[in-house]
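Request: Give me one sample?
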Amino acid sequence: MHLRKVGRRREVDGLEALHAEWIEVAGDDAGEARRRALRHCLDELPPRSRRALELRYGEDAKRSAIARELGLGDEGIKSLLTRLRAALAACVQRRLGDG
């Protein structure tokens, strides 16, 4: 839910918005470490996955538009975004030593 709100923030780039949201959730003390962890995790994603996130959260694109650009079906995009959010959360937790 938090990541959905992030997509509506027009003042920052989509991936930077993800960083900002994680900082808000974590609070100021843990925010910088969480931001670095998320940046690292985003940098590790394949280009196609990063593009899906940029379209969804940076450009607030609908699933159908993302599907057209990436050549996947609507349900495929839904699954991809769900997997990416889970993978990012797990990666950040591993980087922070929380899991």
